Amino acid sequence: MKNYFASLLLLLSAATTLSSCRETSRLPEPAYESIPIIFPEINPQKSYFDLVTSRYSINALATANATRPVFEFVVNPSQGYSEIQTVEVYKSFFRTASSTLGPRVKVIDLTSFPATVSINSQQALEGLFPTTPTTDIPNPIAVLGASPTLQNRIINGNAVVFTFEYVMKDGRRITLTPLSTTVGSIGAPTGPQSLAPMAAYAYFATRP
């Protein structure tokens, strides 16, 4: 008799487990969505910022009768971009010494593709800071010279980094580069898409 009840309990347990598995199998599969990817196409003729003419103060540039260098790239999202309403383009300052990005600043909204973004070094540096306030540096100094007589605060290997975010036609925002909450880098883009080749790096370098 004991063996009979033991077998009955095992049978009931197996039936319950099977029923549970069947109910679980009816659960919907997780929803996945493929989103377009941007690999900015950098113009090889305008692929970096010349350090000397980028660093000139406004007055020194005029005295030298020089012009600011231009960086240019094309934004052309991969297949599926018909669902995109806007590609937001942002810029941040890249510091060579620490390999970190400063807080981002909006550049432009793009609504048709492919789209060409062309920007000179002075425009690229406008509004950028190398860091956000910290205990040691409560008031970071802007990268752009504060007056026409002061040169821009850049060195060889620094860069302006261009990153992207999506606004879809149904109103959703797709965050490609989450913003840092770390003191000193608050508001800086992070993640794989803040790195080349999914971000456009405009380095400051001497002419070859």
Description of the structure:
This is DUF4843 domain-containing protein. The protein is α+β, with helices and mostly antiparallel strands. The chain has one domain. Helices cover 19% and strands 26% of the residues. It has helices spanning 2-25, 51-55, 58-63, 121-125, and strands spanning 41-42, 49-50, 70-75, 84-95, 100-101, 105-110, 115-120, 159-168, 173-174, 200-205. Strands 2, 4, 5, 6, 8, 9 and 10 form a seven-stranded mixed β-sheet that branches. The longest helix is centred in the first third of the chain and has 24 residues, at 2-25.
Class by alpha and beta content = alpha+beta
Low-confidence stretches: 1-24
Q: Sheet bearing the most strands, described?
A: 7 strands, mixed
What would the average pLDDT be, to the nearest integer?
88
Tally of separate domains: 1
Beta strand %: 25-35%
Count of extended strands: 10
What is the straight-line distance between the termini?
A: 94 Å
Proportion of residues in helical segments: 10-25%
Order of helices and strands: HEEHHEEEEEHEEE
Rg, nearest Å: 26 Å
